[in-house]
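Appendix B. Raw example, untouched.
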Amino acid sequence: MVFGSPWHRELVIVGVGTVLALLVGWRVEAPGMALVIWLAAYLVWTQYHLIRLHLWLREGREGEFPPSFGLWGEAYAAVNQLARLSRKSERKLAQVLEGFQESMTALPDATVVLNKRLEAEWWNPASEPLLGLGKVGEGWRRIEEVIQREDFSSFLQAGDYEQVLEIPSPVDPERLLAVRIVPYARGKMLLQARDVTRVHLLEQVRRDFVANASHELRTPLTVMLGYSSRKAAAITS
């Protein structure tokens, strides 16, 4: 036992109180009764603080415990310190979460946070025109209820999230979405859906141009090759 520790001071208080109770008891010729009264008072004091601490922790009250003395004073001081650290951590976490939401809100891609049950917990504004998710807070929905496609369900069940799945938008089938899922801490996942309709249209235009150009150039090239063949045959003869 370290001298001056809370437990040591508490034992000193109990010991001094016991001695005083016995002295008072001897003077009134009832040392046993005096000792019982002192121990009962100490027990009531301890129970009072236990109930007080239990109610404060259960109800999650804000603020700090008022100062006390003895072992309970040390316990309250430790609880107050932990509460201050917890509030500081909560403020930092709130700042990080606010920054995350602001950055995700600014993205043009649909971004959805999924829990381990594949329910949408949070999503940015771009998720409404691309996926059909309403305002945040309207209730969690399973992502398979939002994107009702067999290939998307198979994609989720396969769990190969290195791949990118291209599917039509559940809101506008003319839109093509590139869906990617990124797992992160504690079983949560981040779903991103990018509108790649324009990219595919440009690719289609490129393919059509190459096909048309090849077709248009095929006839002149055939004529030139035929002429060259006949000219070469005439020279050799």
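End of appendix B.
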